[in-house]
Amino acid sequence: MMMDDDKDPTVDGGTEETPVTNAAPEASEETVEASAPTEQVAEDEEEAQPAVKVIRKEASRVEVVLAEEVKEEGVEIEEEDLSGATGSAHDDFNWNMRARSAASRYSADERTSLEQEYEASMTNIAEAEIMSAKVSSIIDGDVILDLNYKSDGLLPLSEFRDQDLKVGDTVEVYVEQQEDERGQLVLSRRKAKLLRAWDRIRDSYANGTVINGRVISKTKGGLIADCGGLETFLPGSQIDIKPIVDYDAYVGKTMEFKVVKINETIKNAVVSHKALIESDLAEQREAIIASLERGQVLEGIVKNITDFGAFLDLGGVDGLLYITDISWGRINHPSDVLDLNQKVNVAVLDFDENKKRISLGLKQLLPHPWEVLDETITEGSTVEGKVVNIEDYGAFLEIQPGVEGLVHVSEVSWSNQPINAREYFTVGEMKKARVVTIDRDDRKMSLSIKQLASDPWERINSGFGVGSNHTGKVKNLTPYGVFVELDEGIGGMIHISDLSWTKRFSHPSEFTKVGEKIDVVVLEVDEENRKMSLGHKQLEENPWESFESVFPEGSYHEATVLRKDDRGAIVQMPYGLEAYGPIKLMRKEDGSIAEVDETLTVKVIEFDRESKRLTVSHSRYVNDIRREAKDQVSKERQEERETIRKAIQKTSASNEPSTLGDLSAFGLLREQLSNNDEDGE
């Protein structure tokens, strides 16, 4: 291979040797064959020419060959007709020239020394390493790089788009190959950047150093940041200490990061900007906590709102404001009072230096409402409040924020019937009540709604005497009866047995529903216990006094099965009367049990006027029919036998001799009589 002009080696104490191309005028267009050994001497050489230096490249190794003087006349040159040659100097060169050199005039030691001197003048380059190179020139979009090596590197200018490159600049490149198939040095700026970027990322992960990166795009769950040519993942939770909603606002920004996770296998990394912010705030947090005092008032910014409270940024340290410390009054959610990014003044209630926890209070900056409660609110005064909480035992009314009173269920109505507080009260509604008791020291107040009206039981006998008829509203149903409201605060119960004379109900809901109107008669009044017994069936005459003659025991009636269970069935009798049939007595002739809505004949087997109970049976009726049919058949056969006997007796008593025909008829009658007797048995 030909060497560059500026890298010709020298021998003999620095005397510059003439390159092969200038060794002799006759050889200006000739070269020594590279395949011929430099120390081989041609047999036909008679005279050595002047000493020349030939640099030969073989298997990535440069070899300096020192040749003895070769006699000019000893060199055989094969001429070539170049009269019509065109193109470059290589095209005009006579490649068939052969040169034979004499034995070297340098010893082996001298030759080794010169080779070592030449090797030392070059940079030692190894593949897969990053080297520094100097920009020697920029020509037509290509950058020529000098690595102080036997050949220069060549890279496209497009690999240096990230910097304003000029001649003389030093850049880092990655050595991919010392020589390619054409003997050229193969370099890569991109790989050098990626390896340097990965080294910085590994250093940041190991030592916590800070790296710079540019956010280039948004991806699922975060952002993609270019850190020195290497793409890294920035999770959304690691962008800032506060939640980020708009990721697009960060695209195109240059930010500082810390590496929090790496994958050596795929050269991937996860970075965090939040970690830098937290580390910066750590010192501020320590300083703030060290200066905290209970009762100290601080200004904070609401950074997050949860169901149980709000987190405030106190300038580098977070504090928690519980929902119970936001207002003296009841609130459903902290967002009812606070907004995100709102500035508020809070008091320090407690803090833990070890756990870095700070408890804050907002309501503590205001006086307690009980301390400034209006003095006109006393026992017996009327107040109005909002229902803020409902329990089974009553409801709490908020007279003003932080001042509440309890309305017990017993103070809702003058009626002695049970009250369901959750059905009577609704959270948020306004109610008026009378103050029954008030204790400013213990901050307690009991209220009453029923005391806003007069006690109706004081006039109970004048308007609701025993035997009086009224129309009331069904307020509640229980398994044993119906509660009916006759007037405000006055009501009574209809027992389930007093709903109907003729029907039996398993539950009052089969007869009426809550909210319906119902006619009643007052049966009994207990003023002391404020109780009233009502009846509905008593509005009609008791039909059981006449039922005894209509449904006597042993009588048969058509009935329809209304309902049944494992023990028996309820059947509908005439006149709307319901009767009970035990399950074993409701079996039909084919052995099956009567079904619901099936009509069949039943027999009354029990009539209890006092208990108003009627028991019937269908199987008894079937047995009776069978017995009657059998008795009728027996009676008819008996009459037939009597007739035959009388005929026989009459024939026997006659004196006339029997003819052959008479004897035949007599035999038939006897045979018939005998058969009848057998059937009777």
Give the helices and strands, then pairings:
Blueprint lengths: L9 E2 L3 E2 L36 E6 L2 E6 L22 H4 L15 H13 L9 E10 L2 E5 L6 E4 L13 E8 L8 E3 H19 L3 E9 L2 E6 L2 E6 L18 E10 L4 E5 L1 H17 L6 E9 L3 E5 L4 E5 L20 E10 L4 E5 L20 E10 L2 E7 L2 E6 L12 H4 L5 E10 L4 E5 L11 H4 L5 E10 L2 E7 L2 E6 L21 E10 L4 E5 L8 H7 L5 E9 L3 E5 L5 E5 L16 E10 L4 E5 H35 L7 H21 L1
Parallel strand pairs: 17-19, 22-24, 27-29
Antiparallel strand pairs: 1-2, 3-4, 5-6, 5-8, 6-7, 8-9, 10-11, 10-13, 11-12, 13-14, 15-16, 15-18, 16-17, 18-19, 20-21, 20-23, 21-22, 23-24, 25-26, 25-28, 26-27, 28-29, 30-31, 30-33, 31-32, 33-34
Helix pairs in contact: 8-9
Protein name: Small ribosomal subunit protein bS1
GO molecular function: mRNA binding; structural constituent of ribosome
Keywords: Repeat, Ribonucleoprotein, Ribosomal protein, RNA-binding
Can you put this structure into words, describing what you see?
Helices cover 18% and strands 33% of the residues. The chain has 681 residues and is α+β, with helices and mostly antiparallel strands. A five-stranded antiparallel beta sheet has the order 7-6-5-8-9. 19% of the residues are buried. The N terminus is likely disordered.
